[in-house]
């Protein structure tokens, strides 16, 4: 079955919906493909807020936000991207307000703002209220608002479609091939421009805040075509996930005054970050928590967690401003944050790397900076390198709305200037064979077991603390898992809603993402941001102030290339300095 649209968006989270809305404003036909009903997308799990220098509570400026973004990214952030972002996110927040997003309010009726880790005033002199929030359901509110606006704009939605291939020929994207859950049929979507916005790949880890659908499908498809993935070694672990479960406990908890405590009740972040304490950037807090656990100061039956303490906060603050996380703790742990300490542990949360793009969302094809005409990417799936080596809290939702909008605007402009590119002969053949090959397979391996081993080994060997021998071992583990994956067998042969088939397809994509991440991390012999190597403790700007590009090679090998870091914005630039918090 064939469909034809000027602009096609893959993914219906915040970035995809923002891109679709602004493409539709460009007077072109727009369709969105999504694994899920749009308002179930993973953006809904984002709790804390959108960082923007509105200055509604205290003095704030976009320059300070830019500085925090660059410093928080451990100077691997592209500074032109940080400047564009820090300026544009202010306008984007007000746009969401005008669309009807129900932000929490100050007594004067302004958008409420609260403190968040890594966000400072006067270039690091103290903390600042910058996070614009809707209680602790900010991402959910963004999804609802943008979906309603897309319905109003006439965007067409294809829900429960799984993209299996990108149609790219001679450096030009012509659409995608997708599998429909409800019928088991393959669809060809012909487009002048395609925007990839399908989220991250956190399910490669055992403990993660990511939804089951975040398996890096489009990153893998891009990688399989010999195209690069950028900075895959940088993966953020959020410091506070519910113990054992990984369910996110927003940084807004600490922004409202929550305190991290070890077994003895010590506020241990005073030792690691004496200035900002519990509001240090996420990579620092995650490492501090793991250090406390390693040194025997953990809590719980296995001594593998730490407490977050809200008991000193007013009940009204906990019940009203933090209602969602309060419900989560009560539901999943049987613990009431009003009266009890909540056990947490770091959880795999966010990919700083992904498909390399320009500031306008155009996908980059190689080390030389060549572009794939008609192909754009935004959100966690993309790497414009706003986040560098470590994303600041609240900058993910800002990224979605700023670069989702830029991608949508530019894709629509491009679509209005070109004709539909020709579809290659047999464009769907690869996707058809991919599905048929799995259905017809007569192997002996079980996909669920392979996935379990992948997740456990990635958590152990390429987690918060890393070293060469463990990652060398992980390279071999992934190579072995890929070989076993080629011998997988499906039990379910149904055509409609075959979840075993979908999960097995996703496993193949996850293995690719894990391969690129592990090779990139092993190659980078320094510690920077979220990439912390026990055998190379220091940041090495002379050798490693550059982006990694990972290309799929033969027989499990990964070819590594590099891309320069943009060290200058239009107005400001910040030279790398030691990290002091």
TrEMBL record:
Biological processes, Gene Ontology terms: anaerobic respiration; electron transport chain; tricarboxylic acid cycle
Chief subcellular location: membrane
Modified residues (Tele-8alpha-FAD histidine): 42
Annotated binding of substrate, by residue: 238, 250, 349, 391
Details of cofactor binding: Flavinylated by SdhE, about 5% flavinylation occurs in the absence of SdhE.
Record-listed FAD binding positions: 11-16, 34-49, 217, 380, 396-397
Every FAD-dependent oxidoreductase 2 FAD-binding domain range: 6-397
Key words, A-Z: Electron transport, FAD, Flavoprotein, Membrane, Oxidoreductase, Transport, Tricarboxylic acid cycle
Pfam family, one: FAD_binding_2
Membrane topology summary: Peripheral membrane protein
Fumarate reductase/succinate dehydrogenase flavoprotein-like C-terminal domain segment(s): 451-581
Protein family (similarity comment): Belongs to the FAD-dependent oxidoreductase 2 family. FRD/SDH subfamily.
Protein name in the entry: Succinate dehydrogenase flavoprotein subunit
């Amino acid at each position: 079955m064939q469909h034809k649209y000027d602009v096609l968006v893959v993914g219906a989270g915040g970035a995809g919906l923002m891109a679709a809305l602004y493409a539709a404003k460009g007077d072109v036909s727009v369709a969105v493909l999504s694994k899920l009903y749009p308002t179930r997308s993973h953006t809904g799990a984002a709790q804390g807020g959108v960082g923007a220098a509105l200055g509604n509570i205290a003095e704030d400026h976009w320059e300070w936000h830019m500085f925090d973004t660059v410093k928080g990214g451990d100077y691997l952030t592209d500074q032109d991207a940080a400047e564009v972002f820090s300026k544009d996110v202010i306008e984007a927040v007000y746009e969401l307000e005008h669309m009807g997003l129900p932000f929490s309010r100050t007594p004067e009726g302004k958008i409420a703002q609260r403190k968040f880790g890594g966000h400072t005033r006067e270039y690091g002199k103290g903390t600042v209220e910058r996070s614009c929030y809707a209680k602790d359901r900010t991402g959910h509110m963004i999804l609802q608002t943008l979906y309603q606006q897309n319905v109003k704009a006439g965007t067409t939605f294809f829900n429960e479609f799984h993209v299996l291939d990108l149609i790219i020929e001679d450096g030009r994207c012509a659409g995608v091939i997708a599998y429909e859950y409800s019928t088991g049929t393959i669809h060809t979507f012909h487009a002048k421009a395609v925007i990839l916005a399908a989220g991250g790949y956190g399910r490669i880890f055992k403990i993660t805040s990511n939804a089951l659908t975040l398996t890096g499908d489009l990153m893998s498809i891009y990688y399989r075509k010999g195209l690069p993935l950028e900075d895959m070694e940088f993966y953020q672990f959020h410091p506070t996930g519910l113990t054992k479960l990984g369910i996110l406990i927003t940084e807004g908890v600490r922004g409202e005054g929550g305190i991290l405590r070890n077994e003895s009740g010590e506020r241990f972040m005073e030792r690691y970050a004496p200035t900002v304490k519990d509001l240090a950037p996420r990579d620092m807090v995650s490492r501090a928590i793991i250090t406390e656990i390693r040194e025997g100061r953990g809590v719980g039956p296995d001594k593998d967690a730490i407490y977050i303490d809200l008991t000193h906060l007013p009940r009204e603050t906990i019940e009203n401003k933090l209602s969602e996380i309060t419900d989560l703790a009560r539901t999943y742990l049987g613990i009431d944050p009003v009266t009890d300490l909540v056990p947490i542990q770091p959880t795999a949360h966010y990919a700083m790397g992904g498909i390399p793009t320009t500031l306008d969302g155009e996908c980059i094809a190689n080390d030389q900076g060549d572009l794939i005409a008609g192909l754009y990417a935004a959100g966690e799936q993309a790497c414009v390198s706003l986040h560098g080596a470590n994303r600041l809290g609240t900058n993910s939702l800002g990224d979605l709305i700023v670069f989702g909008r830029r991608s949508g605007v530019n894709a629509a402009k491009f679509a209005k200037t070109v004709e539909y590119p020709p579809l290659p002969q047999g464009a769907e053949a690869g996707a058809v064979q991919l599905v048929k090959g799995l259905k017809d397979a007569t192997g002996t391996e079980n996909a669920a077991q392979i996935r379990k081993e992948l997740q456990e080994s990635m958590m152990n060997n390429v987690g918060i603390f890393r070293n060469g021998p463990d990652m060398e071992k992980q390279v071999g583990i992934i190579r072995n898992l890929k070989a076993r994956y080629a011998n997988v067998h499906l039990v379910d042969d149904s055509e409609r809603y075959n979840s075993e088939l979908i999960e097995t397809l996703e496993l193949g994509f996850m293995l690719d993402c894990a391969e690129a991440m592990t090779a990139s991390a092993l190659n980078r012999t320094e510690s920077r941001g979220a990439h912390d190597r026990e055998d190379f403790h220091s940041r090495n700007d002379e050798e490693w102030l550059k982006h990694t590009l990972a290309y799929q090679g033969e027989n499990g090998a990964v070819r590594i290339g590099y891309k320069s870091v943009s060290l200058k914005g239009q107005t400001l630039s910040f030279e790398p300095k030691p990290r002091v918090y």
